[in-house]
Each structure stands twice: as structure tokens, then as C-alpha cells.
Amino acid sequence: GDVSPPPSTVIGHTKTLAKVTFNPSVVEQTRIARNGILGDFIIRYDVNRELSIGDVQILNGYFVHYFAPTDLPPLPKNVVFVLDSSASMVGTKLKQTKEALFTILQDLRPEDHFNIIGFSNRIKVWQKDRLVPVTPNNIRDAKKYIHNMSPTGGTNINGALQTGAKLLNDYIAQNDIDARSVSLIIFLTDGRPTVGETQSSKILSNIKDAIHEKFCLFTIGIGNDVDHKLLERMALENCGMTRHFQEDEDAASQLKGFYDEIGTPLLSDIRVDYSEDNVEQVTQNFFPNYFNGSEIIIAGKLINHTSDSLHVEVTASNSKKYILLKKDVAIDLPSRNDIRGVPGLEDGRGDNNYIERAWSYLTIKELLNSRLKSDDDQEKDYLMEKAKSMALAYNFVTPFTVLKMKEAGLHSEPPQEEFISPSTDGIGEKLQSLQGHKAPPGTREKQPCGGKKSLCISHFSPDGDPHFVIDFPSSKLSVCFNIDGEPGDILRLVSDHKESGVTVNGQLIGAPAPPNGHKKHRTYFSTITILSNKPERSYLEITPKRIILDDGERLLLSCGRSAAVRSSSLEVSISANSNVTVTIRDTISFVILIHHYKKPAPYQRNHLGFYISNSKGLSSDSHGLLGQFLNHEVKLLQESLNTSHQQVGQNQTEALNPKPTNTLNVKGRLVPVVWKQRRIYNGQKEVDCWFAKNNADKLIDGSYKDYLASHPFDTGTSFGTINSL
Hints:
725 residues; seven-stranded mixed β-sheet; vWFA_dom_sf; glycoprotein; secreted
């Protein structure tokens, strides 16, 4: 249109080729947005299109085939909308879903048929046992039904999709529908299965059996609590697509945008074939549907180097007829597709066979999708290794590789193998340098102490229920204690606001106690808040799902993606779904372990563990449940039967008689202790420690209640004193 490209954009083109370069300076970035550039770089373009086999480009033994016909009449649709109305959809999510559905219903065509299913723990079908035609009255009644949906109950994903699949299957079987019509289910949820069948593998199997390759399933997730892998795999296994929207985004317009992608089917059962003796390693060449505005892309290798043409056949059907398109594409056209020597298009880095790169990119995506769908561990490992090998060979960033950025001149090194939790999300995405948040050199995980996934951190921590472990290096002792708090309590862990400017608070979440236990409930850390006011104000709020960093500019990061962010005095490094390392002024370091349960027991919750790995920058006046022990030592006394005391060291503890009472001398207070073993670092390490009972009575200054903060940003440094950052 009339919109000019952003600053620094250079477009070089010939009659058949174009290259777009976007390389803004820092000054140009600030002109675009105050916070710099954080988003997608989108190029909108089109080519001359007609109903032909499309555009086939060939270069140096590889081909890529683009098929995107236009000006075709739309196919009729049979669509079932399956909408989550559980209690978690309350508020913005359900409101935005309703707004989007009102618009989508208005866009249905007269030849379409539809129905709506709302589900929570109960499943409600708008029009029982049938799909209705698109008429003004039916659209009006459907809008009323959606308007009256109210959030309540749990989430029965399996039951809702089984109902939707049966409804669509019965309609197809019992009605004389147009043979070329397209049937599909559009499924939307904001959560995980909590009612009925909750095991992902069973749900996937049930849905695949119910659909039986007769139609496609398109899945949409809203918010941070959805099971992304389940939705993605459901769509992949049933010829659909998936999308994920954040709750705080404009979900209504994005839902409508996603529907627009699939709302106008033009062709079905598209198959593209090439002469068998001429090609190999061809990417996906069968597509159930082609939607208006999309593009089918296929790539492969040529094996018959003596042939002067490539035979291409495209078969498909549309609303009026079946289509067969044929063409012999000339192979000897190097001058047309070779960008070498073309002014403005030569990049000088040896990646001139862009067609080979297109083939490798599509192949890597298919390998990752196949890995996601596989249930065989050996096959998954093979597919991962194959995708990783191709990614390293062709310099693509994938879930198994990471791009390292150099500050000097912003040169990049080739992707390297990365040990992170695999996911097909984000293939091709790169770490972005943010205005005010500069990515530090080398964003890979630091070399571990004892293995690929271990961390060089001390035992100084609360973790689990929460269990505290304190190291006293000079005394060669470890002391441990429990804090039995109440759900919602906010505990002061480190209070050094006046000196170093650092405060750490942790908020507890509750869970039922295990059966036959002595506790009335369990508690875990659900949120860790780290505040710093030197040299400038900043804070971090960390949960098992996401991190909020605010140092004057607010930044939201996902715990599910490896990333690194640095400001002038604060560095945050995320190892996906594993841990978060926070470094303040290079003299204070905290490590937050992320605990996720795939199949949590009723008494388990996703939670955090907090470890101090470097306390050099904290002052001698530090306090809090952890901070008070940073600069103090304790003595272990053994009280024999005649009540005389003697000091013992760590090397003597194993020989202690179990009958005498062991006592710690802490700031003149005598604290009875017993010998225990504790597991830390996700249970990977066992620590021997002296355990203080009764909520650390006499071990800590004051009592447990003295360490309760009034809110997550409370920076009170002494009992009875409350400040806020």
C-alpha cells in the first residue's frame, strides 16, 4: 500500500528476484519504538498468480515449488466450534472469545453448515445431533447461545472433542453433503485437562481414532496455563494447525485472524508429484486443504543431472470440479535463479543457494514435527539428531541449537548444540538484543560442575516444602530447618535494602498434605521477588511460568525459552524449564530452580527453589530467613549424660553416640538438633545436615511471624519496619 518501509530497509530486485535487507542502527531503532524493536519482522509480498502448477525454481541440484492459485470459488464448510467455558475462562478470555465468535459467525457463507459445543466438566451442544445451515435466524440464535455461556467447572478436553468428532462424523455419514466440502473442528481452550480422561497420550489416541482422518482439527490456546504440546500434537496428527495467544494480547482480533487463515478453503486433497527417476528427499507433497491467502511450498533434490526438464503434476479438487495440472519445467535456467553477481542481492557469505536452504528449512521443520508426533524414544532420538545435524550444517536456530551473538560488530557464530528441553516452538527464532537490555556475549549455559545439567551453586537455599539448608564453611557444618507457613504467606529470605539495596521475598502456595502424614498441608514457593535499588531501581518477579523484569522498562520473559538479558547492573539468564540465574553488579548471584511436574500428585505443585551462589556483595548486616546466616558462624556442642559440653567438628559427627543430645550454639542461644539427610537440586544431591525442629525456634532471630512481609515488594529490613521499593 502507501506505507513506507521502516528506516534502513534496502530492497534489491530484478524481474524474478528480490532481496530485502533490514539493518537499523540504534538511533533508527529508537525512532521506530521507544523500547527498541521487539517483535516479528514481516514482509508482505505477492507474485503474479494464475491457475497453473505454480512457480518452480531450480538451482545447483535443488528445487523449490510454490503453489498458490487464486480466483477460485470457495468450498463449502462443515464446521464445529468447540469452546472452553470452564471457570478459568472467567473475565477477559471468555469476553474476547465471544467477541471473535460473533464476527466469525457473521463471516460464514450461505453454503456452510455449523454447530457449537461449550464445555467445562459438562458438555453442552447447541443444536443436538446436527449441523445447521447458515441463515440469519440461525446466526442470531447462535450468537445468543454464545452470549449466554458462563464460566464454571473443570476442563473435559477429551469428552468435548469426542462429542465434536461424533457430531461431525454422524452429519457426514447421514447427510448428502457436497463431496468436495471441507469439514473441520475449531477447538479453543485456556487450560489443561482436569475432568474425564486427563492423560495426554490417551486423549491423543482417542481423538485420532474418533476423527479417523475424515476431517481436520485446528487448536487454539489462550494464556499461560495451556498444554501447548498437547494442542500442537492434536493438530499435527489431524491435519490441522495450532495457535497460541497470550491473555493480555488482543486475543479477539488474533482469533479472528486465525479463522481468516482457514475460513476460506479453495482446494482439497492437493497432491503434487514429480517424475520419480528425477527427484529424492522431497518434503511433504500431500495437503488435505489449501486456504485462500496461504501458500503450499515443496522442496527436494534432483538426482538425474542429465535431464533437461522436471515433470510436475498437481491434482486437487474444488467446489466445481477435480483439477489436474501438468508441466515440464526446464532445468537449465541457472541465470534466472542464481543471485551471484546481481547488484544488491549478493550477500558474500556463501549462502547463495537459497533454494537448498529452503529445502533444508522445510526438512528440519518436518523432522521436528515427526519427532513431536512419535511415541518411540529411539525414533525421537534419531529424528532429533538428524534435525540437529542439518541445523548445524545450514546455520539454523532450532530447539537443539543456539545462536551466539558477539558484541563487537554484532557478528554471529554458527549455531551450536544446546542442551535444553526440546519443543518445536520457535524454529528460526533468535535471541534479540533489546534497547536497554543487551544480550551478554555467550548466552549458552555455563559449563556445569559435575555434568551437563548440574549447577555450580551452594547448598544455601530453601527448596521444596520449603526445606532450608544453611552452609557454615568455617565450622564445616550444614544446618537445616523447615518453615511450616500458611498459603499466601510472603517470607523475607534476604533483607539488605539499606546496604547493598537487595531484598528477596518468596510467596507460598498451598497443597493438600500427603496421606498419613503429620502435616495439615504442604506449602511451596510459587513466586520469588528480587528487588534492587542500587545503582538504580529494578525488580524481578519469577514464577514457574514467566519472569517480569522491570528496571524502568517492563519486559516479560517465558521460563520455557532459553534467553539472556543484561542491563547496566543486572543480568538474567534463563535455561528453559530448568533454572534462572540472576546476577547483580557481578558480586551477588541467585539461582532459582524451576520445578515442573508432568503428572502432579494432589499434594504437588509447580514451584521454585531459591539458592544463593554468590553473596560477596551482600553486607554483614543482611537479615531474613537466609540472610541472617551469611556472615555468622555456629558451634556444634555435644551434651553427654552428665550435661558437660564439648565442641565437635564435622569429621567427628559420624562417630557420635546417638544417645547424647546435640546442640548448636547460635549467637549464645542453644538449639537442639538431630542428624538428617536432605535432597536438593531436584533431588540430585544429598546433603548431611543438623536439623532444627519447631519452625527453627531459637535458630533464627525472633519467630517465624517476624519474617512475614506485607506484600511481595516489602523491603523491611528489621522486625516491625516496612518499606516499599
